[in-house]
Amino acid sequence: MVVQTVKPSTEKLKEIANSSHTSIITMLFLALRxxxxxxxxxxxxxxxxxxxxxxxxxxxxxxxWKSLDSAGVGSYIVGRRxxxxxxxxxxxxxxxxxxxxxxxxxxxxxLAKKKVKNARIxxxxxxxxxxxxxxxxxxxxxxxxSVAEITLPKEASKKDFEAVFHALTR
Length: 170
Hints:
The protein is α+β, with helices and mostly antiparallel strands. 45% of the residues lie in helices and 15% in strands. It contains 7 helices and 5 strands.
């Protein structure tokens, strides 16, 4: 991680964080990170926020990252040739985010609850009729490392599985 000698003021960071709802939510999300990183994939962060049920406005989201760049916190890098948009941090990500959300501890706790609630798929136990036909279970490793199982009738072909998988991952 590149360490700069002049850190932006806490007031400037708070001003950037409070510029829009999207900026506040993004900064709170960054403060909840467990580890600091040298670079952040902006598309992944946006996707995670959206999955948590947050309304992210593209214009505000990218303006937030450009403002951090202008403040000298890091470098906003536009993805080219299939590479994602990213932000390379010049300072410790967690320290920057913590400084910016100072005084918003309750909002951070609320977002953390949302993050935990949406971090895993929760299904209630349900009663099902006993399976009388033979089934084939396909196991798929997901991008986050978790495993999903898709159960199809024994007669289903691999092509049928691929069709179901494709329909689920669109």
